[in-house]
Amino acid sequence: MIALLLFPTLLCAQINTERVMTIARNALYFEDYVLSIQYFNQVISAKPYLYEPYFYRALAKVNLEDFQGAEADCDEAIRRNPFVVGAYQIRGLARIRQNKFDGAIEDYRAALKYDPENIVLWHNLSLCHMQKEDFDAAKDDLGKLLTIAPRYTQAYLMRGEVSLRQKDTIQAVKDFDRAIEMDPYEANCWSARAIVRIQQAQYKDAESDLDQAIRLSVRNAGNYINRALTRFHQNNLRGAMSDYDLALDIDPNNFIGHYNRGLLRAQVGDDNRAIEDFDFVLEIEPDNMMATFNRGVLRAQTGDYHGAISDYTKVINEYPNFMAGYYQRAQARKKVGDRKGAEQDEFKVTKMQLDKLNGVNTGKSNKDDADNKDTADNNTSADGKTRKKSDRNVENYRKIVIADDGESDQRYTSNYRGRVQDRNVAIKLEPMYAITYYEKISDVKRSVHFHHYIDELNRSKVFPKMLRITNMESPLSEEQVRFHFALIDAHTSDIVADEQSAVKRFMRGLDFYLVQDFTSSVDDFTKSILLDDTFFPAYFMRALVRCKQLEYKKAEAGMNQEAAVAGSVPSAEAKKSEITAIDYEIVRNDLNRVIQLAPDFVYAYYNRGNVSSTLKDYRSALADYDKAIELNPDFAEAYFNRGLTHIFLGNNKQGISDLSKAGELGVVSAYNVIKRFTDRRE
Predict the structure, then answer these.
(1) DSSP β-ladder status, 468-470 and 434-436
(2) Which of its termini does the chain have fewer beta carbons within 10 Å around, N or C?
(3) Which are the contacts of 614, defined by CB distance < 8 A and separation ≥ 6?
(4) DSSP structural state of residue 469
């Protein structure tokens, strides 16, 4: 079987396509997209008449942002079976990402013929009509969606967005109010209503809404940008700058954050740091003349007159009738002793003032916008304190920047949804730990996970790569896939030469695990244990792989149950795929053995706690998380999972305390969970 898997191009007719499809779908489920495509290719080569490998390969390609390839694969899947709703869904999503909205609308309408109550289809169809600015069609779609799912919050948010685009703020507020009433723990509901309140100049109420949104979603830079705007309008400049600081911590390249913070720093006399902000803006947009002029003013105030003159000259070259530019350059030229240049600039200013008094039209200061005066109302707010980002009228250089229409940070407006790989937004435990070679890079620094025995294995130089202990596993690249297939072949030769080596069996089992061949992986870990029943990493990894098999089987069982209800899968077949408590007890037994062999291996307690929690044996789970934290007082994920377990038991106060510690140690999602349960404290 190993040889057949390793040489698919030569023996494609002989491979067990059912098994390869299972491995491929394992890889897809666990987001190892490049690897899954390799397996789907094998199935397509062996049985090109099947629609499933094309469909699932399309799904993998969508997640890799190969939208053209995904569309082509869906074409093939639909050609082989035109009744698969999912193929239309994925092709619609692929077309959206290529701005083929008409084609996507056709796909969603075709899919709705077969599944008229599918919420995802109506959701994406509505967003397609919004993108095409066919707002009547979008509202019609959303009305039908709400008939099917009257408590679907996203539909109210989208309909509110449509009303805003149609300038109907009253209806928009009604929909946002309804969304908040139904789901007060959804951050987008609060931020959506805040946008309307900002437009209505209700800045205090808008700030209150954004406070709620930020408590629920602390990593959303747009909410801080918008709250800074509300604070600016209430003359709370320090508060606004604080919000821009927070926004730029999350999104360091945010144009609006840097530009506006630069203006506010200038207003409070923090000139040098204001210059740093405008420097950054000009790195992003070297031709931004308003940022250039602001930097010139600040350079002059800090004594860098030559730098200021350079900036003023750039602006004047672009806008030869910009009076403030000549005036400021004249002042700077005086400071450097350029009397002649200063006199020329002053003469230009005097002439422009006289022309203005005499009604002589000298042309617009904004050479790029001949109709600037006619469009001023569209570019500037009613109070004259802000301008839109697209405004190029250099006279507005002192005004705070706001997003253009359609650019406000409303995630639901672009939240197109897929099928199999939709993120589960339910509150769930942090994942189990593995011994592997690869780890994702975290945005938030976490502690390095260590155990002396694993360190000894690394120092022995037996393994081809450094072993890592992590619960943030990284999917393989195409090069890594080839590397581990080659290693499997090499380890097979080594095992033939030395059949009694538990470590060599373990190494091959680890390679099989990485290429998502869980069955072969478990076989090798079992053989490793039989050869050396004291080698605890084999028990630990066998427990993990079996748990992942159960996780995938559970997901498949859920789909089979739905299919059985619909009548497309026999009930007996759906029953066969159900998971029992005994399946998890087998996993727990392996972890018991790890703890017996290595009582200081903290990750075994943590993983066993997760298994107990899955079985709803919360008391046992708490005991394991307690022990994990006793062994490692900075174990962030153990605090997070213990906090959730306390909450599952109704002990909200203890749970929130643990979640707070988890957040402090780097599990950012803990803050969202805290907010959700704060109102339910004991």
Answers:
(1) antiparallel
(2) C
(3) 584
(4) E
Q: Phi/psi at 84 (nearest 5 deg)?
A: -90, 110
pLDDT digits (tens, 9 = 90+) for 297-340: 999 999 999 999 999 999 999 999 999 999 999 999 999 999 99
Q: Which residue, chain included where needed, has tokens 């004047």?
A: 316
DSSP-assigned letters across all residues of 512-523: HHHTT-HHHHHH
Task: For residue range 110-152, list pLDDT tens digits in order.
Answer: 999 999 999 999 999 999 999 999 999 999 999 999 999 999 9
User: Structure tokens of 108?
Assistant: 């969603």
Angstrom distance (rounded) from CA 470 to CA 665 = 16
Please name which of 180, 179, 242 lies closest in space to residue 212, comparing C-alpha atoms. Answer: 180
**Measured CA distances, 521 to 517, 530, 620 (Å):** 6, 14, 28
From the CB of residue 368, how many other CB atoms can be counted at a distance below 10 Å? 12
d(CA 215, CA 241): 19
Environment class of residue 450 by beta-carbon count within 10 Å: exposed (0-12), middle (13-18) or buried (19+)? exposed
Instruction: Specify which residues 470 forms β-bridges with.
Output: 434
Stretch 498-519: mean pLDDT = 95
Give the residue among 378, 425, 380, 422 at the shortest CA–CA distance from 399: 380
- Reported as type and span, the H/E element at residue 435 is strand 434-436
Q: Which of 593, 579, 646, 584 is nearest to 612 (CA)?
A: 584
- Look at 67-76, 264-273, 337-346, 354-363 and tell me which has the smallest mean pLDDT: 354-363
| Of 661, 657, 628, 563, nearest in space to 86 by CA | 563
Token couple for 164: 């805003």
Name the pTM for this structure: 0.73
